[in-house]
Amino acid sequence: MAAIQRSDSALRLNVHFHVLALDGVYLRAPETGKLVFHSLPTPTRAEVAEIATRTHVRLKRIFEKHGRWLDPHAHSDADAHPLEQEEPGLSACYAAAAQGVAVSGERAGQPSLRLVAAQSLPPQATSTAPPPDEPVAEVGGISLFVKQRVDGRDRRQLERLCRYITRPPVAQDRLEERSDGRFELTR
C-alpha cells in the first residue's frame, strides 16, 4: 500500500511517499503445505542509506534526461527553465517557497518560522539528529525513514497506520470558507 502526499501539514510543497510493506516473506512449509511468515530483521542504517543513494541517483538521471536538476545551481543559463529567464524574481520566490526559506524581511534566506502545537512535540525533543542505530538516511534531498513497525495481528494499530498513510494533508472539517471566497484553516 502506498500513498503520495504532495504537501506537509503546513500546506507547503513537500512531495513524499508513505508506503506500507511486509517486513518478511511467506514460504510454504514442505511438511504441511501451509504458508508460514518469516520476518526479516530491521534494516541497518547503512542499508537504508544505500537505498536512499540509489533512489537519488535514479531520480537525478530521470530529471536530467528531462532537462531538470535536483541541484538548482547545477545547470547553465542556457538550460534554465523558461520561468527563470522570463520572470527571475518569481522563479526565485517559487524556489525559496519549495525549500521553506523566507524570501524577504529580517529572515531572508533563512528557514521559515513555523508554529508548532506544544502537544505535537515529543517529550524528549532535545536534538534533531536521530540515534545512530535508527534506520534513517538523507542523501541529496532524499530522506528515507524505516522506523514504524506493526505486528500484522495488531489490527487496531495496523488500521491506525493505514489511516495515517492515506490521510489528506489537512482534514476537510478544519477548512472554513471566508466571506471573500478564500479558505481559512481553523482549530
Tell me the layout of helices and strands:
Blueprint: E1 2-7, E2 13-19, E3 24-28, E4 35-39, H1 45-65, H2 82-86, H3 88-99, E5 136-139, E6 142-145, H4 155-166, E7 175-177, E8 183-185
Antiparallel strand pairs: 1-2, 3-4, 5-6, 7-8
Give an overview of the whole structure.
By secondary structure, this protein is α+β, with helices and mostly antiparallel strands. Helix content is 27%, strand content 20%. It is built from four helices and eight strands. The strands form four sheets. The chain has a two-stranded antiparallel ribbon. It has a two-stranded antiparallel ribbon with strand order 3-4. A two-stranded antiparallel ribbon has the order 5-6. A hairpin with a 5-residue loop joins β1 (2-7) and β2 (13-19). It is extended. It starts with a strand and ends with a strand. The model has no long low-confidence stretch (mean pLDDT 78).
**Helix coverage percent of residues?**
25-40%
Order of strands, widest sheet = 1-2
Q: Please report which band the strand proportion falls in: under 5%, 5-15%, 15-25%, 25-35%, 35-45% or over 45%.
A: 15-25%
**What is the number of helical segments per DSSP (H or I, 4+ residues)?**
4
The chain-level structural class is alpha+beta
Order of helices and strands: EEEEHHHEEHEE
* Principal-axes shape call: extended
Give the averaged pLDDT, no decimals: 78
Regions with little confidence, pLDDT below 50 for 5+ residues: none
Largest sheet: 2 strands, antiparallel
- The counted number of beta strands is 8
How far the N terminus sits from the C terminus, by CA atoms, comes to 30 Å
Radius of gyration: 22 Å
